[in-house]
Amino acid sequence: xxxxxxxxxxxxxxxxxxxxxxxxxxxxxxxxxxxxxxxxxxxxxxxxxxxxxxxxxxxxxxxxxxxxxxxxxxxxxxxxxxxxxxxxxxxxxxxxxxxxxxxxxxxxxxxxxxxxxxxxxxxxxxxxxxxxxxxxxxxxxxxxxxxxxxxxxxxxxxxxxxxxxxxxxxxxxxxxxxxxxxxxxxxxxxxxxxxxxx
Amino acid sequence: xxxxxxxxxxxxxxxxxxxxxxxxxxxxxxxxxxxxxxxxxxxxxxxxxxxxxxxxxxxxxxxxxxxxxxxxxxxxxxxxxxxxxxxxxxxxxxxxxxxxxxxxxxxxxxxxxxxxxxxxxxxxxxxxxxxxxxxxxxxxxxxxxxxxxxxxxxxxxxxxxxxxxxxxxxxxxxxxxxxxxxxxxxxxxxxxxxxxxxxxxxxxxxxxxxxxxxxxxxxxxxxxxxxxxxxxxxxxxxxxxxxxxxxxxxxxxxxxxxxxxxxxxxxxxxxxxxxxxxxxxxxxxxxxxxxxxxxxxxxxxxxxxxxxxxxxxxxxxxxxxxxxxxxxxxxxxxxxxxxxxxxxxxxxxxxxxxxxx
Lengths: 198, 357
What we know:
- Chain A is built from 8 helices and no strands.
- By secondary structure, chain A is mainly α.
- Mean pLDDT of chain A is 80; it is low at 33-49.
- In chain B, α3 links the parallel β4 (78-82) and β5 (102-104).
- Chain B has 12 helices and 14 strands.
- In chain B, 58% of the residues are buried.
- In chain B, the strands form 3 sheets. In chain B, strands 1-9-14-13-10-11 form a 6-stranded mixed β-sheet. In chain B, strands 3-2-8-6-4-5 form a 6-stranded mixed β-sheet. Chain B has a two-stranded parallel ribbon with strand order 7-12.
- In chain B, 38% of the residues lie in helices and 21% in strands.
- Chain B folds into 2 domains: 8-191, 3-Layer(aba) Sandwich (Peroxisomal Thiolase, Chain A, domain 1), CATH 3.40.47.40; 204-356, Stage V sporulation protein AD (Peroxisomal Thiolase, Chain A, domain 1, 3-Layer(aba) Sandwich).
- By secondary structure, chain B is α/β, with parallel strands linked by helices.
- The longest helix of chain B has 20 residues, at 50-69.
- Chains A and B meet through α2, α3, α4 and α6 of A and α7 and α8 of B.
């Protein structure tokens, strides 16, 4: 395989990871925030009838809610700014380095900047307001890895950092790879069908 | 009402002599600024890891409490301590320096109330002259253990609470012991211009340990709602057994229910015909300026009640501003594993009645 070929493969892997990252992270997020588990009411204490069966529903219904509109606007602005910055990088790199290199370099720059700001303690302050705006671009992935790395360095290089660095990003990598395999199979089948039809 | 619903009355009325409080930066700058014994601007307390910082806070807190009495650790008969970290390691390491028999406690955020109940039991029974209840929590170590890495960029829901960084040590002793020591206290007062940091009028009168209660809440970002039924249960049992009503007390203060739990507890008890008035407060709502500090539903953690009770409520009792206080330490007894498995969160609420005497 030529050097360009392997670069193309890596760039494609990046792309798959990013796409599946969005889906998996959002699923993960929804699963955690919504907790759609319906195992309430298994052992309600009936001694005092203060505990209505619908306590959980009531508590959730009356709980303070996030302002969805404000959150969306903030996420859109920050996410849009990150993507615009990435596009600017792309435009700047592509004239000098060619498309293959640019496809690799743009995410690399974003990952580096995220890791740096995470280490300086700035990233979580932005992410607190931006939400999905920093979570969905590759910055969310880089922050998940670098924050876990910083956090676990006290437990040692091997069993601490080595094993815990992927505690948040691990599912993304696993299901991202799985998704790219499925995508490849589907693509292969489509090509086969296309070839048969022609 | 079951037959084991009883209030433990302490006829010897164990006294809280001295309290040491250690706070983090956000607490020091919170809604009750600068009332704690010491604080650290970067929350590390000079330690390399967050867990060690928490241990250091416990050591500092107990040292402050002992120093106020001009005691060494030989005067303490027992230590009851607990925290939120796995296997209560913060207490184990933090209290290494003290040559005192140590009994570890786990009651999540209700550890302070549990510790006060245990010290009151042992002191009231006469087994020891003085015992200490120590507890701590650290925002960063709790975030690491229960949620995400400290630097992880995520959004918190409006119902989530902020774990308080701090530690508190409460020295509880026999009443007669206080009389003997009172001369010493007076002597110490005379040399200082400021009022004594010691307490001579705060007594533990009654206690009612809580039961483990779960009402189906399994959202770890809404602990207040999970703990509200437990607080409601303990208060309801207490009012029923003692035959009193909320207006009989100067203050009814819960540990760390936060905005959600505070509201739900009031609503649950209102359904049972018990109306909590303006004397119903919550440490989690008092400790931070929720708007300015962006604290969402308020504070939580062992240190939440330890800091507010030790540095704000007990001095008020000491000055006679509050004479009859119900303190309900609330805790959510979940682990990271139980939350991941989707199990509902059981909660507990221990009640301690503090009086001015």
